[in-house]
Design brief:
Blueprint lengths: L2 H20 L11 H8 L3 H13 L3 E4 L3 E4 L4 H21 L6 H15 L8 H15 L4 H8 L2 H11 L3 H21 L2 H22 L5 H10 L1
Antiparallel strand pairs: 1-2
Helix pairs in contact: 1-3, 2-3, 4-6, 4-7, 4-8, 4-10, 5-6, 5-9, 9-10
């Protein structure tokens, strides 16, 4: 098999396993059996093993000694760390451009928000997809490949964290558009500090809601968040 064909096969397997995880066909905490996946996808265990390594980098699966690979369970601190890093990555990009967001980036963000505005409860999963696409624009505009790569490694973790830890879907749908609209408005103004503050507030709101739902009263989390950024 040529290197190109093998790469295509590996990417197809990564996408297939990722889809099974996102659709809950493999549940959080459930063990992943390489042989079963190899038989299902009609391939050897090599591409399966490489795909699982990629998904481990993305934060979707984890290896436990003497147990093997399983779908990762997301805790409050997993989300806290992922959102803290995402916030910092986006702020690095915003500060690099001194808040002068390119017009093309603004147009793309506007288009994504229009789709987000009309999501129904039946298509709730689209909320996190559009959320990722919206925030991704703030990173892509930096044109820094390593920054983009680091941000994208948290892409699917953000999706699963949202599914697992936020329970009130209707309330999320109601506020999601307005929350992102505030970031877009700041981007249009071109005030670097205001954009950074809106991004920071946006991510903290999510963490705060999770804290409330889990009845967690750890005040150090907010203090550490504000100090770290």
């Amino acid at each position: 098999m040529s290197e190109l064909l093998y790469k295509t096969l590996r990417e197809s397997v990564v996408n297939a396993i990722r889809t099974k995880i996102m659709k809950r066909q493999i549940r959080p905490g459930e063990r992943i059996v390489e042989l079963e996946l190899a038989q299902e996808f009609h391939t050897s265990r090599g591409p399966i093993r490489e795909a699982l390594r990629q998904l481990e980098i993305e934060g979707l699966v984890e290896y436990t000694r003497n147990v093997g690979c399983s779908v990762r369970r997301f805790s409050l601190m997993d989300s806290y760390e992922a959102y803290l890093l995402r916030t910092n990555y986006e702020i690095v990009s915003i500060r690099l451009l001194n808040g002068k967001i390119p017009k093309d980036t603004i147009r793309k963000m506007e288009s994504i928000l229009e789709h987000m505005k009309h999501i129904s409860i039946e298509k709730f999963d689209k909320v996190f997809e559009y959320d990722n696409r919206f925030h991704e624009q703030l990173v892509l505009m930096s044109k820094l490949p390593r920054l983009e790569k680091a941000w994208k490694e948290l892409y699917f973790s953000n999706l699963l964290a949202g599914y697992e830890l936020l329970k009130d879907k209707g309330e999320i749908l109601e506020r999601q558009y307005d929350n992102h609209l505030a970031i877009l408005a700041a981007c249009k103004e071109g005030d670097c500090e205001k954009i950074c503050q809106e991004v920071k507030k946006h991510y903290w709101r999510t963490i705060y809601r999770i804290l409330q739902e889990q009845e967690n009263e750890d005040t150090e989390l907010e203090k550490n968040w504000m100090m770290a950024i």
